[in-house]
Design brief:
The protein has 109 residues and is mainly alpha-helical. The protein starts with a helix and ends in a 9-residue tail after the last helix. 23% of the residues are buried.
Length: 109
């Protein structure tokens, strides 16, 4: 977590803004509230922070591409907001990771 915060801070205001915007896209897409996120386990929180960090690396262009990927994939597979919000947290993280392009070379979707 400290590593992600440090790396985001290297981008100064641009990096912090992109990180915040990545979380806004994720929160909006899956309906996350502060209470819901606080109730996640530490490991789940780290996975979400890592996914948001991966998006923010591309700065605002990365966030825009992330948002566009959601739109394209949602349209392609017919994902609705209700469908995405009904997925388990683990499934949601896998989708976020797939959308962000962050993976270890193995598609887990």
């Amino acid at each position: 977590m400290i590593t992600a915060a440090y790396n985001v801070s290297l981008g100064k205001d641009i990096g912090v803004t992109a990180f915040k915007n990545a979380f806004e896209v994720i929160d909006e897409k899956f309906g996350y509230t502060p209470e819901y996120l606080k109730a996640r386990t530490f490991d789940e929180q780290i996975r979400l922070i890592t996914a948001a960090y991966a998006v923010s690396i591309g700065k605002e262009e990365g966030v825009a591409a992330f948002k566009n990927a959601f739109e394209i994939i949602d349209e392609k597979f017919g994902y609705t907001p209700e469908y995405l919000k009904a997925r388990t947290f683990d499934e949601q993280i896998r989708l976020i990771t797939a959308y962000s392009g962050q993976n270890d070379g193995v598609f887990r979707g």
